[in-house]
TrEMBL record, chain A:
This is DUF1854 domain-containing protein. It comes from the Bacteria. Residues 47-174 form the DUF1854 domain. It holds the Pfam family DUF1854. InterPro entries: DUF1854.
Automatic annotation (TrEMBL), chain B:
The lineage of its organism: Bacteria, Bacillati, Bacillota, Bacilli, Bacillales. One of its GO terms (cellular component) is plasma membrane. It is a multi-pass membrane protein. It is found in: Cell membrane. Keywords: ATP-binding, Membrane, Nucleotide-binding, Transmembrane, Transmembrane helix, Transport. It comes from Paenibacillus mangrovi. GO terms for molecular function: ABC-type oligopeptide transporter activity; ATP binding; ATP hydrolysis activity. This is ABC transporter ATP-binding protein/permease.
Length: 177, 730
């Protein structure tokens, strides 16, 4: 087995069925003048890169798939904390743009009007409103205290830990659930 | 051009040209919520803040391409320029469609191509008043409308039976009045017979009166009950019928997103809850309300001061009900959700029972079930417990009124102000009042239960089909079978297209083989022809008619499908073959089976064509089922035929039989076939190679082989595979 591995290493052939992990030292990310996420991956420059969270619910800053503009995977960054300062800031920003998921800081109200549930929310990105047809199809519970709310139109908000919300928000939530 | 929001003056004043298009986004560049305006003129694209400050300006001539890049929950508009891509504006998922359109429009202006026009589908559909999303296909905002809509809609189901309802109500009124007689007779007995010790004929007459009233009551209650059951069953049947009908009419995409087991509960339980409310509920409310009023009138006549005293606790009871109402409603919904989860879980694991057993995961499933079960038990206790708690509290509160009556009424009797009989009658009437008042809370229960059930039922009925029929469908008649895809783009999720800009012209009678890796869009391609989904962009025509202008009945008449997963309905083989043509003669059925290579094996079955198949019937093998399905398609006699991996799950011998059957079937019909084994597509007139939703190659088997492109690679890869298989088999 080791011999075979040795040969593959020598020839430097990428096994297409192996997950390619990007070494933190071999990658750097930045933002172009036009605001587009770009970077240098193992010596090659890409003027547009697309990021995917591999486990969007479980890990927000770990297991990031880096892909070119055609969607082909260039590799996986295991943890963005290991990257250099600029790369880390930009990758973090880009993830926040691509995975638009405001964090709910306060629930102003949850009202049921006609056949719609209307949530007035304060988030870390400003106030917003989420409208649902019903509760059972638009709420997800990825872990014990975490709730993901999805709007009729696909807009999403996250309640990271409902137990740590203020009293008003909690009672609104409890009333509805 | 329809423009949704008016451009603010501050921006408009600064423009040098008339804008071609503008749209407002709901995000700032830094990802915060906020508004920015995108404005397109003939010369430039600009982005503005709401107060008129310029964020970005780009000459249209500098742009090579504009893309709407979709993220999760949001997206951004990106312009490609010689100096690299530039982000124009960011938006949340609610605005995906309008900015998708913006990208196409700007791109068209930049490249000097034909400009697209905005369609209804691309504008965000919000109520202009409250900004909440509108239901599709309607301009009426449900939020701005009154809340009693659900109730009145529910009651409209009782309309066809109004005569019977009226009869029940009249009988109810009568019973109620008759029920009020006995206490009055008791009063007479006490005052006129027992107190004066006057043993005349009066006693006998009063007892006869009492007997007559109870006989009347019994009789009327029986008749009324029977009418109630009759109306109830009828309404329930109508409701179930309507729900099921709307379910059948919904498009596939509705079911893609939901577990099908949940609907079983919806169709049955929710309509039962609604029925209970309408028959028992409505009748009761009318009857009890009437009774309350009459009792009050009688009591006031007997002694108005004492009545007022007895009524002291009433406001308290009303307040209590109004506090409990919303709470109960929410708990019912909660309990419903638990039941719903439990049902979904059972449905899921039973459907996948083979997988569960194969992986030995019975214990995991059991523990998943018991978690959901515990949740249901908890919610059950919560709602029922609340329920059980309410009754005694109501009784206690009402009891205070009785106590007050006994005390003050008693002292009045002693003071000679009222007779003993009057006091007894008062207390009896008060006791009768307690009943309806308790029923008020039961009514709350019924009503809220029924309203939430109605909400869910109407939700199904109101869900518009994603593939609506046009008002004036074009009559097709018998088509030739020309099919054309014009720039068709479609994604199950709008922001993630599975088919991209597909163009293909197919002549009548041609056989097209669809080739590509899994996920390339082959099945989607086929789904589009059947119009299980409507394209997001572009059109599909049959004989030059847009399939959106053809009624679905008519369209499906032209299309026959043989799928990989053959589904036979519960019934005989003959019934299954004649599924699309119930009036087919026995000879037609046999002919179809013969062409499908199925006749021989069917005849050899002990029950022949009368063999029951489907869930509870005879187990046919995969190949046998497939051939029955082909016979079903043959008898349908479609002009356009779709074969989706029709031979994927059978052995080589059976495959040959099926192949033969298929080759007879496709003759003279426009055929689209998907197959994993490329060899089965050898007869195809043209092969279409799909990759990531795009057509990359079109041509005959030989042409594509000599071209040495993607198809060549696929063929080579399969040859490798069969070699390996050959080795394995040897």
């Amino acid at each position: 087995m080791s011999v075979i591995n040795g040969i593959i290493d020598e020839l430097d052939v990428k096994d297409p069925y192996e997950i390619h992990i990007l070494e933190p030292s071999m990658v750097s990310f930045s933002r172009s003048q036009g605001g587009v996420f770009q970077g240098v991956i193992e010596g090659k420059t890409f003027e547009e890169l697309i990021l995917y969270r591999i486990f969007p619910f479980q890990y927000t800053t770990q297991y990031i798939s880096v892909r070119n503009s055609k969607g082909e995977e260039l590799g996986v960054v295991l943890d963005i904390d290991q990257l250099d300062e600029e790369s880390r800031t930009e990758i973090d920003n880009e993830l926040k743009f691509r995975y638009f998921l405001p964090l709910v800081t306060r629930i102003d109200s949850i009202k049921q009007k006609a056949d719609l549930w209307i949530w007035e929310l304060q988030t870390n990105l400003g106030p917003t409103r989420i409208v649902m047809r019903n509760l059972h199809e638009h709420m997800q519970y990825p872990s014990a205290n975490r709730i993901i709310l999805t709007d009729i139109n696909g807009k999403r908000c996250e309640i990271r830990d409902w137990t740590s919300l203020d009293g008003h928000s909690r009672s609104q939530l409890k009333d509805a659930l | 051009m329809p423009i949704l929001d008016k451009l603010p003056r501050a921006i408009e004043d600064q423009l040098t040209e008339e804008p071609l298009f503008h749209a407002v986004s709901d995000l700032m560049k830094d990802g915060q919520f906020g508004q920015q305006w995108l404005v397109l003129t003939e010369q430039e694209v600009s982005v503005w803040g709401t107060d008129g400050e310029l964020v970005l300006k780009l000459a249209v001539s500098y742009i090579t391409e504009v893309r709407a890049v979709g993220g999760v929950g949001g997206g951004s508009l990106l312009a490609d320029t010689p100096s690299g891509p530039i982000i124009l504006i960011r938006y949340t998922a609610s605005l995906t469609s309008i900015f998708g359109f913006a990208s196409k429009l700007i791109g068209a202006v930049a490249k000097g191509e034909e400009r697209p026009t905005v369609s209804e589908k691309e504008l965000p559909r919000n109520c202009p008043k409250c900004r909440n999303p509108l239901p599709d296909g309607s301009q009426a905002c449900p939020v701005c409308k009154s809340n009693s809509r659900v109730l009145s809609r529910m009651l409209s189901y009782a309309k066809p039976y109004k005569m019977q309802m009226l009869a029940a109500v009249i009988m109810l009124i009568f019973t109620t009045l008759v029920e009020l007689i006995p206490p009055f007779l008791t009063k007479m007995m006490v005052d006129d017979v027992l107190t004066p010790m006057n043993m005349g004929s009066t006693l006998l007459w009063i007892v006869i009166g009492l007997a007559a009233t109870s006989l009347m009551i019994t009789l009327m209650q029986t008749v009324r009950g029977m009418i109630g059951v009759w109306i109830g069953s009828k309404i329930m049947g109508d409701l179930r019928h309507d729900v099921y009908q709307s379910l059948m009419k919904l498009s596939l995409s509705f079911f893609d997103r939901r577990q099908s087991s949940q609907f079983i509960g919806r169709v049955n339980n929710d309509s039962e809850a609604m029925r209970q409310f309408m028959t028992d509920g409505v009748v009761w409310v009318t009857g009890e309300a009437l009774r309350v009023i009459v009792i009050f009138v009688i009591m006031f006549n007997l002694d108005w001061k004492l009545t007022l005293l007895a009524m002291l606790p009433m406001p308290f009871m009303i307040v209590l009900s109004s506090v409990l109402w919303p709470m109960i409603g929410r708990r019912w919904y909660q309990q419903w959700r638990s039941i719903f989860r439990l049902n979904a879980l059972v449905g899921d694991s039973l459907q996948g029972i083979r997988v569960v057993k194969a992986f030995g995961q019975e214990n995991t499933e059991m523990s998943r079930y018991s978690v959901a079960n515990k949740d249901l038990v908890r919610n059950n206790i919560r709602i029922e417990g609340l329920w059980q708690g309410i009754f005694p509290v109501f009784a206690l509160v009402a009891g205070v009124g009785t106590l007050l009556t006994w005390y003050y009424g008693g002292s009045k009797v002693l003071g000679g102000e009222i007779s003993t009989g009057t006091l007894i009658a008062m207390v009896t009437y008060l006791g009768m009042l307690l009943g309806p008042l308790q029923w008020v809370s039961q009514m709350i229960n019924w009503a809220s239960h029924a309203l939430s059930a109605a909400d869910r039922v109407f939700e199904i009925m109101d869900t518009p089909s994603d593939v609506p029929d046009t008002a004036n469908p074009t009559e097709l008649g018998r088509v030739k079978g020309d099919v054309e895809f014009k720039q068709v783009t479609y994604g199950y999720e709008k922001h993630h297209p599975v088919l991209k800009n597909v163009n293909l012209k197919v002549a009548a009678g041609e056989m097209i083989g669809l080739v590509g890796h899994s996920g390339a869009g082959k099945s989607t391609f086929i789904n589009m022809i059947c119009r299980f989904y409507d394209s997001d962009e572009g059109t599909i025509t049959i004989d030059g008619t847009d399939i959106r202008n053809i009624s679905q009945r008519d369209l499906r008449k032209q299309i026959g499908v043989v799928l990989q997963e053959t589904f036979l309905f519960d019934g005989t083989i003959a019934e299954n073959i004649a599924y699309s043509k119930p009036d087919a003669t026995k000879l037609e059925i046999m002919r179809a089976a013969k062409i499908a290579n199925a006749h021989d094996f069917i005849v050899q079955l002990p029950d022949g064509y009368d063999t029951r198949v489907g869930e509870r019937g005879h187990k046919l093998s995969g190949g046998e089922k497939q051939r029955v399905a082909i016979a079903r398609a043959i008898i349908h006699d479609p002009r356009i035929l779709i074969l989706d991996e029709a031979t994927a799950s059978v052995d080589t011998v059976t495959e040959r039989q099926i192949q033969e059957a298929i080759s007879r079937l496709v003759k003279g019909r426009t055929t689209f076939a998907i197959a994993h084994r490329l060899s089965t597509l050898r007869n195809a007139d043209r092969l279409v190679v799909l990759e990531r939703g795009k057509i990359i190659e079109v041509g005959t088997h030989e042409e594509l082989l000599t071209a040495k492109g993607a198809y060549f690679k696929l063929v080579e890869a399969q040859k490798e595979m069969s070699k390996i298989k050959g080795v394995e088999n040897a």
